[in-house]
């Protein structure tokens, strides 16, 4: 497996690019790349030439996360002031605006069926689940406090939830916190199951393997990528090599590789069979905040694509084969 | 003659024939009478009769037809049918069919029965020959190809079969059997992908193809795609629940999948898969009890389960309960033991069924070895069990003496070193590249202390197979024992071993090495030790090391839990040197308890330890520390004293840490003087370490008399690394701040020192940030800009240093520290602070970046609110900014952090409330504005700050014309007083704006008192104050005195263009009112100054100057200066008056015939006026001029 650079857009945004995702293909168009940035906009790009399709404005602070519905028609973007804007990808019509207290919205993900939007609740130490047809809050999954009755301390801010991930079967929901713990929930019964331990610094990105609903990958500030058996509470692999925080992780559609982005300004490709880094891309000149593999579908199914975004305001697109 | 009898009407009547056929038949017989030797006619009649099931008669016709026309295969075919089905004369049938096939090789109907007959008689070769012949004659004889294909498959001639089958498939593309057979042929040829495809096609055509499913499952297992294989077997079992091969395959697939999981370390996952597999295998074995390989598989599964079953418990519950822990260990052990027992039984069944299979002997040997290691009374029946293992492996060898693997097994399982060596060497003789054997041989040599040999052997093993874990592990163990190489190297090799094979022993070894090489906090070690605990919960070392790893990750609470478990494990176990282990573990426990803040528990532990014997230096430190935590200072000191008395006998590394500990403890308990005197008493040669140097310097920094000066300077020689030295400089700078002994910090000398130090260490971000912080702290004019410039934002520090200011903080604070509003976007306002230029919007972005990186960072959020407020103010509080800001503030206010009583948090709370109040004020919501301000005024803060809450209330009441309350708040302000100049200035401004008749001298004197405190900016503040006074007088229409004040201000701050502009404007007004040329010259002087001083063009200055110069009669100058005014304004902000002025200039041009092409000449005067009117239609003057121009 290998990555080959295809295209890079410098100054794709006016400031740091923080979030990236692919809106899957629909009947009328190929997949689109969505990026969110500190310049308060979300931009849509046509692959492979990365032609700017549209710029969505409307957020008052930097855009921290973007998420796309599995059908490709809807997407959501959230900013630091905790407004989530849900919009139609093709027309940019606002479908809903979800509001939470600032600092209580971080990463977002749609569930594999697209019925629920899970929003990492930041300082509220919980995940909020929104129904995607009525756009009402259906549940709040709170992480139980491990510390007993100790209300003082900064314990409230310790469990700041940064990241969220759905298992491919939609039954499990995992979230990563600032203190390094990962919490696993039963998404059907809205119940907390257990913690996964091993990281001791913030976990900024999580992703489940597309094939195995037990395998979970996590990226943390401690510089490691962990592979967990999320049901058995076991740490089954660690991949180290980044020189600084690992900010993002995504798993390839074939489940054989993961890509990570880091504060050391590189994007790495890891072979899961060898559990080793097989390639390092160092074309970014600042920390890489997001990596995203293109989901399968559309006309050119065979060619895999990976996009990465960085603080250096640029977007890079690679061929994955 | 022949057909007469058939021709009666009665016979025909029961047949349901159409009347047309009737006539056909009649017609046929009529024609037969005409030409009785027409072969085709006979055939037709035969066919007719055949169809009417009058076979005998039909046969007669067919015979005639065949005789008459021996080339007609069809008649032979029917004859064949007749002989086969009716007269049962096989020989004749065969001959007829053969004839038919020779005539027409494509004839499926005769070929198939021919082959069936041959098949029945067992004449395979003949059958093949027939098919071969047919297939060679005609490529369209698909039946022959098909038959041939099946026959070849049956004969295991795979490659020929493939060809025939491929050909046959062209004729019968939807025949699932053909695809299945093709798949089988491919599979046997080893072409697995092709086989999978063929099987897949067969399953597609017919989803009940169990064989194809099972075989594709087998292929998947061979290819290592266990998951896929399992799915296929499951599918097969759905169709045919009793299918043994499918059951076997499923169990095998699950076992392989489980093995994969176990190799990753996912034991629980593996165990759950094994349970599933075992269920399948057991069911299968029980229903077909006589299949050896199923029993063996079941045993394999059970053996794997016995090995991988993890110990997983809620440790918190076991922590305090030794019995529960012991019970849990026992039940875990029992589960494993039972599984191993089941494995042994199943192996025996398998062996019983097929005793010739040598490998089962060796499997039993391995199992009994495992049972031995799991059994509780390990020591007692060791020898007996060992013997069993040995015997069984010898049994395997007796059957297959040439199998090297059995030799290796014997080599591992036997109890006698000599036999082991012999067996391994025999194995190697049989296969010299057997890495495993080399590895075990090496292990054996290590055991008997033949290090040289062992190393050679291991090297060989590693060079043959670098993917073998054992040599790596041994190498690391060896290098650890011999201490030849760095611990890092040993750690690396061991980590490789663990990666290859997650054995508990390797994992524990890895953790031990991590402890030595300082990798304890790495997540690889964490994963390894967690897995080790799951596999050897009875082993105290694993719990102890787990605790150490948790401690390294700063999770002291769980560390304590694991230490307790380790202690339980020791007391359960039967090892001889129990006490020393318990002691070590207890010290660990006490240490982590005290770190977790549970002083009482830690103390209890220490006292228990002390009862059993004297504590070592670490124990003493922990003891003293927990005593101190618990508040028993005297005891702590006495323990520290005993620690100090041991100093001379300690190792160098522990001396340094002990000295540091003692000094700090004494400082915290007895204070500065005691610690200094005790340090002076200590022998100086003990201070040879950088660590000590830091502690000494810190203590000396607190001491105003510099009593430790000598000691400190001597210890500083031991600082070696650049980073250490720069940190020491940082410490010295901090020392400068507190050195003078008074209450307030000596910021000036701190800044001076840092400036010098930074010159030496330009890369030290720590110092840069401190300098920035101090500069901001000093509240000097312009220092804010210097502060932001000295902090480096390009390489923000990722480390989480609590309590230290980061570059983000400095930038954020610096941006709000500047009093003057203004940004680089002249759309909103005219920037007055030249130095600031563009730092402000950058600060907002950099703060957002900071929040994005550390969203829990409340400092950054707070600063963002302040910066945003600043931005909103610049833009005159637009709606959308106010809304965002309001949300940010409300969220910040709801944070529980701000309800803490510390001054710092209270102050921020106060600021946020004032911000909220200001925003409500700007949005017109007076009620909430007042509530917020009142809330702010009720916080517990120094008067100095509270002043501003009341100031805000003053503003509010003044705006609402609520005089009574205003007076009250105003009085409260005067009463509270503040150190902040700006506060007094605001109050002063308010006083005149709302025309209060109050004794303003109170403010004047307070202000003067306030600015006396800092010398440097006295001039500036006085100038501002004078300006305010001047403005106040302006309000009262006392222009002359106002001019005096402002002139005074100008003389005090001769660099501020705004002051001069103000002065110039006042002078011009005086000129207008009093017509005194004296003021005119003053005005010109001031306004020219404005030009010189301001970096950015200041509006109004030019127009006023032009007026002044015009009044003096200098037309040229008037002209030139007025033109300048046009450019002083940005396009969005140009007022109507400027357009009007341009009309004057344009008119001038019309009259004066200037040829210069300039802005004013671009349009006619009359258009200029129209534009002015468009800008401001309410000004009658413009209309009048327009009217004049129109005339």
Describe this structure in words.
The complex is a heterodimer of chains A (about 325) and B (about 1200). Chain A is mainly beta and about 325 residues long. Chain A has a single domain, classed as Methylamine Dehydrogenase, Chain H (7 Propeller), CATH 2.130.10. Chain A is about 0% helix and about 50% strand. In chain A, the strands form seven sheets. Chain A has a four-stranded antiparallel β-sheet with strand order 1-28-27-26, with no helix packed on it. In chain A, strands 2-3-4-5 form a four-stranded antiparallel β-sheet, with no helix packed on it. In chain A, strands 6-7-8-9 form a four-stranded antiparallel β-sheet, with no helix packed on it. In chain A, a hairpin with a 4-residue loop joins strand 23 (about 255-260) and strand 24 (about 265-270). Chain B is built from 62 helices and no strands. In chain B, about 75% of the residues lie in helices and about 0% in strands. The relative contact order of chain B is 0.02. Among the domains of chain B are: about 215-355, Serine Threonine Protein Phosphatase 5, Tetratricopeptide repeat, CATH 1.25.40; about 435-535, Tetratricopeptide repeat domain (Serine Threonine Protein Phosphatase 5, Tetratricopeptide repeat, Alpha Horseshoe); about 1135-1190, no CATH class. Chain B is mainly α. Chains A and B meet through helix 1, strand 20 and strand 21 of A and helix 16, helix 29, helix 45 and helix 47 of B.
Helix segment tally of chain B:
62
Q: Please identify which CATH superfamily of chain A we are dealing with.
A: YVTN repeat-like/Quinoprotein amine dehydrogenase
Helix content of chain A: under 10%
According to CATH, what is the topology of the domain at 217-355 in chain B?
Serine Threonine Protein Phosphatase 5, Tetratricopeptide repeat
Please outline the major beta sheet of chain B. none
First and last CA, distance of chain B:
141 Å
Poorly predicted regions of chain A are 148-157
Which oligomeric state applies? heterodimer
How many β strands of chain B by DSSP? Answer: 0
How would you sum up the major sheet of chain A? 4 strands, antiparallel
What's the overall average pLDDT of chain B, rounded? Answer: 80
CATH class descriptor of the domain at 217-355 in chain B = Mainly Alpha
Largest interface: A-B, 51 and 47 residues
Number of domains of chain A: 1
Strand content of chain B: under 5%
Biggest sheet: strand arrangement of chain A: 1-28-27-26
Helix and strand content put the structural class of chain A at mainly beta
Query: Poorly predicted ranges of chain B (pLDDT <50, ≥5 residues)?
Result: 1-18
Please tally the helical runs of chain A, counting DSSP H or I stretches of 4 or more residues: 1
């Amino acid at each position: 497996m290998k990555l080959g650079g295809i295209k890079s857009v410098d100054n794709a945004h006016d400031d740091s690019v923080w979030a990236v995702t692919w809106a899957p293909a629909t009947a009328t168009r190929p997949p689109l790349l969505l990026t969110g940035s500190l310049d308060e906009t979300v931009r849509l790009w046509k692959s492979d030439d990365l032609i700017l399709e549209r710029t969505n404005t409307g957020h008052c602070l930097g855009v921290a996360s973007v998420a796309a519905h599995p059908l490709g028609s809807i997407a959501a973007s959230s900013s630091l002031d905790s407004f989530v804007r849900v919009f139609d990808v093709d027309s940019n019509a606002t479908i809903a605006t979800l509001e939470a207290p600032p600092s209580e919205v971080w990463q977002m993900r749609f569930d594999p069926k697209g019925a629920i939007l899970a929003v990492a609740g930041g300082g509220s130490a919980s995940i909020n689940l929104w129904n995607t047809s009525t756009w009402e809050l259906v549940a709040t999954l709170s992480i139980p406090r491990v510390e007993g009755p100790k209300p003082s301390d900064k314990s409230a801010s310790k469990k700041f939830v940064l990241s969220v991930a759905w298992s491919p079967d939609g039954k499990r929901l995992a979230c990563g916190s600032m203190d390094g713990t990962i919490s696993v929930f039963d998404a059907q019964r809205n119940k907390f199951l257990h913690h996964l331990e091993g990281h001791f610094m913030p976990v900024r990105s999580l992703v489940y393997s597309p094939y195995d609903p037990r395998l979970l990958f996590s990226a943390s500030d401690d510089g490691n990528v962990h592979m967990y058996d999320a049901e058995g509470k076991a740490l089954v692999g660690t991949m180290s090599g980044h020189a600084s925080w690992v900010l993002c992780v995504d798993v390839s559609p074939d489940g054989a590789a993961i890509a990570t982005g880091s504060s050391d300004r590189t994007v790495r490709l890891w072979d899961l069979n060898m559990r080793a880094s097989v390639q390092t891309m160092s074309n970014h000149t600042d920390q890489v905040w997001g990596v995203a593999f293109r989901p399968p579908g559309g006309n050119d199914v065979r060619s895999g694509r990976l996009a990465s975004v960085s603080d250096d305001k640029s977007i890079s697109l690679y061929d994955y084969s | 003659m022949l057909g007469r009898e058939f021709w009666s009407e009665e016979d025909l009547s029961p047949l349901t024939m159409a009347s047309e056929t009737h006539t056909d038949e009649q017609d046929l017989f009529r024609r037969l009478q005409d030409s009785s030797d027409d072969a085709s006619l006979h055939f037709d009649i035969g066919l007719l009769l055949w169809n009417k099931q009058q076979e005998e008669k039909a046969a007669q016709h067919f015979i005639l037809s065949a005789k008459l026309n021996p080339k007609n295969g069809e008649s032979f075919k029917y004859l064949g049918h007749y002989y086969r089905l009716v007269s049962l004369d096989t020989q004749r049938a065969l001959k007829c069919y053969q004839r038919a096939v020779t005539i027409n090789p494509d004839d499926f109907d005769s070929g198939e029965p021919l082959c069936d007959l041959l098949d029945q008689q067992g004449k395979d070769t003949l059958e093949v020959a027939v098919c071969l012949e047919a297939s060679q004659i005609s490529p369209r004889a698909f039946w022959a190809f098909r038959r041939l294909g099946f026959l070849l498959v049956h004969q295991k001639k795979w490659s020929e079969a493939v060809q025939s089958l491929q050909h046959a498939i062209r004729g019968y593309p939807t025949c699932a059997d053909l695809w299945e057979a093709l798949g089988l042929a491919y599979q046997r040829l080893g072409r697995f992908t092709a086989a999978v495809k063929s099987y897949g096609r067969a399953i597609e055509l017919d989803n009940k193809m169990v064989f194809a499913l099972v075989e594709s499952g087998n292929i998947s297992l061979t290819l290592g795609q266990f998951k896929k294989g399992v799915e296929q077997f499951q599918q097969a079992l759905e169709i045919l629940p009793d299918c043994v091969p499918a059951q076997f395959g499923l169990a095998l697939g699950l076992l392989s999948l489980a093995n994969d999981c176990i190799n990753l370390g996912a034991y629980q996952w593996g165990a759950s898969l094994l349970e599933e597999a075992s269920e399948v295998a057991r069911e299968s074995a029980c229903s077909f009890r006589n299949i050896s390989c199923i029993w063996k598989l079941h045993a394999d599964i059970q053996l794997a389960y016995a090995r991988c079953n993890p110990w997983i418990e809620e440790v918190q519950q076991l922590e305090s309960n030794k019995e529960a822990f012991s019970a849990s260990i026992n039940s875990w052990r029992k589960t494993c033991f039972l599984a191993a027992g089941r494995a042994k039984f199943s192996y025996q069944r398998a062996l019983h069924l097929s005793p010739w299979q040598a490998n089962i002997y060796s499997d039993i040997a391995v199992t009994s070895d495992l049972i031995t290691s799991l059994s509780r009374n390990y020591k007692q029946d060791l020898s007996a069990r060992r013997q069993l293992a040995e015997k069984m492996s010898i049994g395997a060898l007796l059957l297959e003496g040439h199998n090297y693997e059995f030799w290796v097994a014997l080599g591992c399982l036997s109890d006698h070193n000599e036999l082991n060596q012999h067996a391994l060497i025999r194995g190697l003789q049989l296969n010299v590249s057997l890495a495993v054997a080399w590895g075990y041989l090496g292990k054996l040599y290590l055991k008997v202390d033949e290090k040289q040999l062992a190393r050679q052997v291991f090297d060989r093993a590693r060079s043959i197979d670098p993917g073998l874990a054992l040599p790596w592990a041994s190498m690391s163990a060896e290098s650890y024992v011999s201490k030849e190489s760095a611990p890092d190297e040993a750690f690396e090799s061991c980590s490789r071993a663990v990666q290859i094979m997650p054995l508990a022993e390797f994992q524990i070894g890895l953790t031990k090495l991590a402890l030595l090489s300082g990798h304890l906090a790495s997540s690889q070690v964490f994963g390894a030790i967690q897995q080790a605990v799951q596999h050897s919960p009875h082993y105290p070392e694993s719990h102890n090391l787990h605790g150490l790893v948790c401690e390294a990750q700063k999770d002291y609470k769980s560390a304590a839990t694991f230490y307790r478990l380790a202690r339980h494990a020791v007391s359960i176990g039967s090892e001889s040197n129990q006490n020393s282990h318990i002691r070590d573990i207890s010290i660990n426990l006490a240490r982590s308890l005290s770190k977790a803040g549970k002083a009482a528990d830690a103390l209890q532990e220490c006292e228990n330890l002390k009862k059993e014997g004297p504590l070592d230096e670490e124990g003493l430190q922990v003891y003293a520390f927990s005593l101190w935590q618990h508040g028993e200072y005297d005891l702590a000191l006495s323990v520290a004293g005993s620690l100090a008395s041991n100093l001379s006998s300690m190792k160098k590394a522990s001396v340094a840490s002990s000295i540091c500990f003692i000094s700090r403890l004494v400082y915290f308990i007895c204070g500065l003087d005691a610690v200094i005197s005790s340090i002076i008493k200590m022998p100086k040669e003990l201070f040879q370490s950088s660590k000590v140097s830091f502690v000494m310097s810190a203590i000396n920094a607190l001491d105003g008399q510099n009593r430790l000066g000598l000691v400190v300077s001597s210890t500083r020689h031991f600082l070696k690394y650049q980073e250490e030295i720069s940190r020491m400089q940082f410490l010295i700078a901090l020392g400068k701040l507190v050195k003078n002994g008074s209450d307030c910090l000596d910021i000036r000398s701190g800044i001076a020192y840092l400036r010098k130090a930074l010159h030496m260490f330009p890369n030290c971000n720590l110092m840069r940030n401190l300098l920035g912080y101090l500069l901001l702290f000093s509240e000097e004019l312009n220092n804010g800009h210097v502060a932001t410039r000295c902090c480096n934002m390009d390489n923000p520090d990722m480390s989480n240093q609590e309590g230290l200011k980061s570059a983000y903080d400095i930038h954020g604070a610096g941006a709000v520290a500047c009093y003057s509003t203004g940004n680089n976007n002249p759309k909103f306002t005219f920037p007055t602070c030249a130095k600031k230029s563009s730092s402000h919007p950058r600060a907002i972005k950099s703060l957002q970046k900071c929040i994005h990186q550390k969203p829990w960072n409340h400092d950054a959020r707070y600063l963002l609110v302040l910066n945003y407020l600043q931005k909103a103010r610049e833009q005159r509080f637009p709606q959308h900014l106010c809304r965002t800001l309001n949300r940010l503030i409300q969220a910040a206010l709801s944070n529980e952090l701000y309800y803490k009583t510390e001054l710092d948090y209270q102050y921020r709370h106060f600021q946020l409330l004032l911000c909220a109040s200001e925003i409500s004020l700007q949005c017109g919501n007076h009620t909430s504005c007042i509530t917020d301000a009142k809330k702010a005024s009720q916080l517990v803060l120094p008067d100095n700050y509270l002043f501003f809450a009341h100031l805000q209330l003053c503003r509010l009441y003044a705006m609402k014309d609520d005089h009574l309350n205003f007076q009250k708040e105003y009085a409260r302000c005067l009463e509270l007083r503040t150190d902040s100049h700006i506060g007094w200035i605001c109050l002063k401004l308010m006083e005149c704006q709302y025309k209060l008749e109050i004794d303003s001298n109170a403010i004047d004197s307070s202000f003067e008192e306030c600015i006396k405190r800092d010398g440097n900016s006295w001039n500036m503040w006085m100038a501002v104050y004078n300006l305010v006074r001047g403005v106040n007088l302006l309000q009262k229409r006392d222009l002359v005195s106002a001019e005096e004040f402002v002139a005074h201000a100008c003389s005090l701050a001769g660099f501020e263009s705004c002051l001069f502009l103000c002065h110039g404007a006042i002078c011009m007004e005086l000129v207008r009112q009093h017509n005194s040329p004296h003021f005119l010259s003053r005005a010109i002087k001031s306004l020219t100054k404005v030009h010189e001083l301001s970096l950015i063009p200041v509006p109004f200055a030019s127009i006023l100057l032009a007026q002044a110069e015009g009044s003096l009669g200098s037309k040229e100058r008037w002209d030139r200066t007025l033109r300048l005014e046009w450019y002083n304004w940005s396009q969005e902000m140009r007022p109507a008056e400027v357009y009007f002025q341009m009309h004057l200039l344009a008119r001038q041009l019309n009259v004066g015939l200037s040829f210069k092409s300039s802005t004013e000449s671009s349009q006619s005067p009359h258009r200029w006026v129209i534009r002015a009117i468009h800008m401001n239609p309410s000004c009658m003057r413009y209309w009048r001029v327009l009217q004049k121009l129109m005339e």
